[in-house]
């Protein structure tokens, strides 16, 4: 507890606990909490700071293994759907689903799922970049394709029904 002066007399004081990230050195200054360095931490009411320890999820953790198996399953499913769409490319079903845009959607979904594998193991500068960039970039493209496809469907069915001459232009 730091001694906080109370009134005009030096002998009167209130005690306040030092918050997280600070400590009290009684021999140096019993009246003020000292901030820990950026590489250190302390609990409330501490008299010293502790070094921060880097913790990460290893590849061998059961939760990491389950997440990676799920990501691989999604990648395999996405690739299988891409192959199925490629085999049946000229059919009306694939054309109505979006045609070439489907391959862009499948590719972006596959690449955004691959970014999951960079969240495990000891972090490095490159793995931190590979965690976020592929997911943000490819998932955004995938969502943009869904928005475009939704707009196309609305345009074709709703607007064409109300304005048939506009659709034929």
Summarize the structure.
This protein is mainly alpha-helical and 169 residues long. The protein has helices spanning 62-87, 92-97, 100-114, 125-162, 164-168; strands spanning 2-5, 13-16, 22-23, 34-35, 40-41, 50-51.
Question: Can you put this structure into words, describing what you see?
Answer:
The chain has 169 residues and is mostly helical. It has two domains: 1-53; 62-162. 53% of the residues lie in helices and 9% in strands. It is built from five helices and six strands, in the order ββββββααααα. The chain has helices at residues 62-87, 92-97, 100-114, 125-162, 164-168; strands at residues 2-5, 13-16, 22-23, 34-35, 40-41, 50-51. The chain has a two-stranded antiparallel ribbon with strand order 1-2. Strands 3-4 form a two-stranded antiparallel ribbon. Strand 1 (2-5) and strand 2 form a beta hairpin. Helix 3 runs antiparallel to helix 4 (125-162). The longest helix has 38 residues, at 125-162. The protein starts with a strand and ends with a helix. The model has no long low-confidence stretch (mean pLDDT 85).
Keywords:
169 residues; two-stranded antiparallel ribbon; 5 helices; 6 strands; elongated; glycoprotein; receptor; GPCR_3_CS
């Amino acid at each position: 507890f730091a001694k906080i002066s109370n009134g005009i007399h030096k002998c009167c004081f209130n005690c306040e606990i030092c918050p997280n990230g600070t400590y009290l050195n009684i021999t140096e200054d019993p009246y003020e909490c000292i901030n820990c360095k950026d590489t250190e931490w302390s609990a409330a009411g501490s008299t010293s700071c502790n070094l921060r320890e880097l913790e990460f999820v290893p590849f061998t953790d059961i939760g990491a293994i389950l997440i990676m198996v799920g990501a691989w399953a999604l990648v395999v499913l996405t690739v299988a759907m891409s192959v199925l769409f490629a085999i049946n490319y000229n059919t009306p079903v694939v054309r109505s689903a979006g045609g070439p845009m489907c391959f862009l959607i499948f590719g972006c979904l596959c690449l955004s799922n691959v970014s999951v594998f960079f969240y495990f193991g000891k972090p490095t500068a490159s793995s931190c970049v590979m965690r976020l960039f592929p997911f943000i970039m490819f998932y955004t493209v995938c969502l943009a394709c869904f928005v475009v496809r939704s707009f196309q469907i609305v345009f074709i069915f709703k607007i064409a029904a109300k304005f048939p001459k506009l659709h034929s232009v």
